[in-house]
Specification:
18 strands
Length: 310
């Protein structure tokens, strides 16, 4: 497990509002990443979209300043992961961080059966979240109830798993390790895929590795490590944050406002519709983010205003 030392880095001046794609390391919580980024960015107004477990690595979108308002539009984006499923052991957490609850010899499980089991989980399915998850039961997180020794039974949720590609099947004695590439909707638990595959094959299963490679239009190719971001900050170099307008363009369709429309939006006023369906961002002629709008009842109504009048 990789440990992440505390950073003393602090920007000489606060970073401009925007989104930063962080390559989260193993062994730190998403909240821990936010704490590090507050020091790196020189501001406390930092948030993240899409929690990753401490064991997981990869894409974590961090918002700085008023860009935290954009996180509402990040949470529902589709995601992609690479993962390793170990067949032959089930754990209380459905991943390698939990105690083993049952073991079985998986060496006789055929490759074809593994592929068929995963194929059966693609499409729109009802998936029961992992018991050790952030789902709330009577106001308390499921993982806290499990850690307190309570038995947790969660209801199935409808999710969409667009694809599960098997990249490799490796046999390690009584265990079978399956490397997969998963594309899915928000709310999908990759740990639950490992658990359910093991259950279907009668040998138990859990996740031994998980890396998020994409959230919507934000991929691992544009992500930076905390170490790199800390070094840039100490050197006074740009952190590589996506400006508000550019970030919004990756999240939704855009519309460019005239100077008069921009002024009206700064006061929270409605605009004339242009026939765009669903939510979209309104940018200034210079590409700055002014608002997020939705058209209904013959008007374009601001849902969130970013450029308020002073």
């Amino acid at each position: 497990m990789t440990t992440v030392p505390p950073s003393s880095a602090k920007s000489a001046r606060p970073v401009q509002p925007g989104l930063i794609v962080v390559d989260k390391p193993q062994g730190i919580t998403s909240h821990g990443v936010v704490s590090r980024m507050r020091r790196i960015c020189g501001t406390r107004k930092v948030g993240h979209g899409g929690t990753l477990d401490p064991m997981a690595t990869g894409v974590l979108i961090v918002a700085v300043g008023k860009a935290t308002k954009l996180l509402t539009y990040v949470s529902g984006l589709d995601k992609s992961y690479t993962a390793t499923i170990r067949l032959g052991q089930a754990t209380v957490t459905d991943d390698a961080e939990g105690d083993v609850t049952e073991s079985a010899d998986a060496s006789a499980v055929a490759d074809a059966a593994i592929r068929e089991g995963l194929a059966a989980m693609t499409g729109e399915i009802d998936q029961v979240p992992s018991a050790v998850s952030a789902v709330k039961i009577d106001g308390q997180r499921a993982y806290k109830l499990v850690r307190d020794g309570e038995k947790v039974e969660l209801k199935a949720r409808r999710v969409t798993i667009a694809s599960i590609a098997v990249e490799a099947i490796r046999r390690e004695g009584e265990f079978v390790d399956v490397d997969v590439d998963v594309s899915c909707s928000s709310g999908t638990y990759i740990r639950a895929i490992a658990r359910d595959l093991g259950t279907a094959l009668g040998v138990g299963g859990h996740l031994t590795a998980l890396r998020r490679t994409r959230i919507g239009g934000f991929g691992i190719d544009v992500a930076a490590t905390l170490e790199t971001l800390g070094e840039r900050s100490e050197a006074g170099a740009p952190l590589g944050a996506l400006a508000m307008g550019e970030a919004a363009a990756r999240l939704m369709p855009t519309r460019t406002a005239t100077e008069a429309e921009a002024k009206a939006l700064s006061y929270g006023k409605q605009l004339e519709p242009v026939g765009m369906e669903g939510r979209y961002a309104v940018l200034s002629e210079d590409g700055d983010l002014l608002a997020v709008m939705i058209e209904r009842d013959g008007k374009a109504k601001p849902e969130t205003v970013f450029a308020a009048a002073s």
